[in-house]
Amino acid sequence: MPVKATNFLFSLLIVVAAFAAGRYAFPTSSAPAAAPEEIAVKTTETPVVSRADSPVAGSISAEDALAYTPSELHTIRLFENASPSVCYITTKTQRRSFWTRDVSEVPAGSGSGFVWDNQGHIITNYHVIRDASRAIVTLANGEDYDAKLVGIAKEKDLAVLRIEAPAGALEPIPVGTSQDIRVGQAVYAIGNPFGLDQTLTTGVVSALDREINSQANVPIRGVIQSDAAINPGNSGGPLLDSRGMLIGVNTAIYSPSGASAGIGFSIPVDVVRYVVPDLIRYGEVRRASLGVDFYRYWRGTGLAIEEVVPQGPAGSRGVRGLSQDARGNWVLGDVLVGINGKAIKTSTDYFLEMENFEPGERVTLNLVRDERRIEVEVELGSSVE
Known about the structure:
- GO terms for molecular function: serine-type endopeptidase activity.
- By secondary structure, this protein is α+β, with helices and mostly antiparallel strands.
- About 20% of the residues lie in helices and about 35% in strands.
- The strands form five sheets. The protein has a six-stranded antiparallel barrel with strand order 1-2-3-6-5-4. Strands 7-8-9-12-11-10 form a six-stranded antiparallel beta barrel. Strands 14, 15, 18, 19, 20 and 21 form a six-stranded antiparallel sheet that branches.
């Protein structure tokens, strides 16, 4: 082989070897370079996704969660945790045919409720099941159960139902407190507006200590006002705080049109916690009682006492009711004008004041007897005894 050809081949081999060595020592492929960048993104986002105040819903993977903001992830998780506790309530009533006189069941209405405990107790509004001959509870899993009425508190617009469902199908709602609620904090309402089950609306607490009228025409005080959209069918559903804790029961809306106008009212959960145990145990709220009935047609100041249970709290202390003299004329008895010095002018005043006491407590009754004021100390009894 000629010397020039040999030198050319030798030079070519040196160039090829140098090029190969350079590729091995300094790789230039773009594919491996993308991996460190992808890992860096995951490392940055994962702590945000796993934070306690911005949890990722169980149905969302860490990668899919990157498409949502921390606030959205929090709301998704809250709904997915709370919705199994919320149920759909439909009611039926009996109606007799005008022509055939046959009795049949017809739909009466619908509302919302939530699971209270593993014994199958369901909380809802009294007005949801009022006048119903039958109530059907549909759990979040789609199973229907006939409900039995356990107890009602018309003056608080609350009712307790019970269903025979397996414990595994019941998801009691976490119960919070309404003592530390603040105007401006976020709230979440879950219910069945217009029959559309498992609907979530959000808003803020817009005012506190509102007063609304109950089904018994007695004011409910301390009501929570929020701007979360509440519509017909939301009644009886839960109002939750940002931790997913029950803070109220949605009960009414203020709306000229009948639909949400941005003002909804919820019964505080502290009232629910006070009422529900008595409804479960007694079927009614165990209230402090004087053992008296008041004369409905009295038009003077205070409450005229009509009847007194002889051995009741007031009767055993000599409190008098209406009586008749030897000629059959009615004689006015005692008139209740105050309790512990606080003026009592109407039956509403009396009812709200008695809510401040428990059976067994002692109070002083301010009475008017024979046109003079007297005081009688009594030990309060119980309305369920």
